[in-house]
């Protein structure tokens, strides 16, 4: 009897813990919803992810036209034809700006190059790639293009000369794949090939910065519960000043986070056998986007702090909201694999703005001016959160809430 009474007591306590129930039921449901929608097309053969790529075919030959037709049927990628008169610099710009992940350039003498593929002639086609493209996506695209080229080579040059040999035997006679792959950066300069660490550090750096919400809100609530904030107000310290005074120390914490994580990527990861993080193309740009992300994260944390009434509520709401913002912001799932409507939704997450800014300086070869749009959006978001936090804090101090 005592046992069942204790069980009943625990169920009643759990039923009153709204925030515990939120973590147990609501957060997983929301997270599953977001991640399922984000990755919907990646696991659906009928709605496979389709990555657009630019296709500029300068070949007037029959083989050139056949190549275009074959590439239009490649699963997972969709060719966007570009007029042959469009300058190559414009294609490079679109890829460097990440408007398209790939561009495929077919030269006028494509047929001759394909016939001598693997010989002294240059590669049959050139692939321009965005530095922000995931390694696995690059591999899939190159495999798809290679298979198309091999198919044309077999049908037009190998089968006619060798007769009815099996496909397996024919493939043994083909040269190794030698596509001309080239990463395109915004300033046009050549750089070290991007690695996985170049993409993982920016993503998790943004995620980590926003988790300042937990220590900041806890400290804020302790001061409020102990009456420290009321005593400071009685000393003619305005609520706005009390709020803004929280910004400087946690800004410093975020910058230390940034330096530490960049140092880990540059020095510790290669010592453990991984690829080294390449330095940012603009240290000023790195500071700008890091500062803007920090101020946005601190503003968001202070807004959470003024909304909740206990540290448990702050930890729950802050942690849940950060995970959801991370899922929406492309931190956990690359945006380009999401369906179109989810890519539009992603743009509302401040983590998405911070991630794009860090990718600009670490991957795309962007100067400091390239991160101004993202930094500006983050600063506006942070300022809005700080203004809301200040107003709510004043109401609380006046006993109106």
List keywords for this structure.
401 residues; 5 strands; 5-stranded mixed sheet; alpha/beta; elongated; D-Maltodextrin-Binding Protein, domain 2; 17 helices; 63% helix; 2 domains
Report on this structure:
This protein is an alpha/beta fold and 401 residues long. It folds into two domains: 46-183, Periplasmic binding protein-like II (D-Maltodextrin-Binding Protein, domain 2, 3-Layer(aba) Sandwich), CATH 3.40.190; 194-397, no CATH class. Helices cover 63% and strands 6% of the residues. The protein is built from 17 helices and five strands. It has helices at residues 2-16, 18-38, 62-71, 88-96, 110-115, 135-162, 167-173, 196-210, 213-225, 228-234, 239-244, 247-271, 283-307, 311-328, 340-346, 350-362, 372-397; strands spanning 51-57, 77-82, 102-106, 126-129, 180-183. Strand 1 (51-57), helix 3 (62-71) and strand 2 form a beta-alpha-beta unit. Helix 9 (213-225) crosses helix 13 (283-307) and helix 13 packs antiparallel against helix 16. It is elongated and about 85 Å long.
Structural class of the secondary elements? alpha/beta
Q: Tell me the major beta sheet.
A: 5 strands, mixed
Distance between the termini: 43 Å
Give the helices and strands as they follow along the chain: HHEHEHEHEHHEHHHHHHHHHH
Please state the CA-atom Rg, rounded to the nearest Å. 27 Å
Helix content percent band: 55-70%
Quote the average pLDDT: 76
Please provide the count of β strands.
Answer: 5
Q: Give the strand order of the largest sheet, numbering strands 1, 2, ... along the chain.
A: 2-1-3-4-5
Number of helices: 17
Low-pLDDT residue spans: 42-48, 162-176
Strand content: 5-15%
Instruction: Kindly give the count of domains.
Output: 2
* Shape, per Cα inertia axes: elongated
């Amino acid at each position: 009897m005592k046992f069942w009474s204790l069980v009943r007591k625990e169920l009643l306590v759990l039923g009153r813990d709204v925030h515990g129930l939120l973590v147990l039921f609501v957060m997983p449901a929301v997270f599953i919803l977001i991640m399922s929608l984000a990755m919907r097309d990646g696991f659906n053969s009928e709605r496979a992810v389709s990555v657009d790529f630019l296709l500029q075919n300068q070949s007037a030959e029959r083989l050139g036209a056949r190549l275009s037709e074959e590439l239009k049927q490649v699963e997972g990628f969709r060719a966007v034809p570009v007029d042959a008169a469009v300058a190559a610099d414009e294609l490079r710009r679109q890829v460097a700006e990440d408007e398209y992940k790939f561009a495929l350039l077919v030269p006028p003498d494509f047929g001759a190059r394909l016939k001598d593929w693997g010989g002294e002639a240059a590669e049959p086609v050139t692939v321009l790639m965005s530095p922000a493209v995931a390694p696995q996506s690059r591999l899939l695209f190159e495999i798809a293009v290679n298979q198309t080229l091999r198919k044309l080579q077999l049908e037009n040059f190998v089968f006619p000369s060798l007769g009815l040999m099996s496909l397996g035997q024919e493939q043994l006679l083909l040269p190794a794949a030698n596509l001309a792959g080239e990463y395109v950066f915004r300033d046009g300069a050549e750089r070290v090939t991007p690695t996985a660490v170049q993409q993982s550090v920016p993503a998790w750096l943004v995620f980590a910065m926003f988790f300042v919400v937990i220590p900041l809100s806890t400290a804020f609530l302790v001061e409020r519960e102990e009456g420290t904030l009321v005593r400071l107000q009685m000393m003619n310290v305005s609520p706005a000043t009390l709020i803004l005074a929280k910004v400087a120390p946690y800004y410093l914490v975020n910058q230390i986070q940034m330096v530490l994580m960049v140092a880990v990527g540059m020095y510790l990861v290669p010592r453990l056998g991984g690829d080294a993080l390449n330095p940012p193309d603009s240290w000023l740009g790195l500071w700008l986007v890091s500062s803007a992300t920090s101020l946005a994260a601190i503003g968001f944390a202070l807004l959470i702090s003024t909304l909740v009434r206990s540290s448990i509520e702050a930890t729950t709401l802050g942690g849940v909201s950060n995970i959801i913002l991370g899922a929406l912001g492309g931190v956990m799932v690359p945006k380009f694999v999401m369906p179109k409507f989810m890519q539009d939704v992603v743009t509302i997450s401040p983590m998405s703005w911070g991630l794009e800014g860090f990718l600009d300086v670490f991957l795309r070869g962007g100067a400091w001016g390239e991160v101004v749009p993202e930094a500006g959006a983050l600063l506006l978001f942070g300022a809005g959160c700080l203004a809301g936090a200040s107003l709510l804090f004043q109401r609380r101090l006046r006993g109106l809430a």
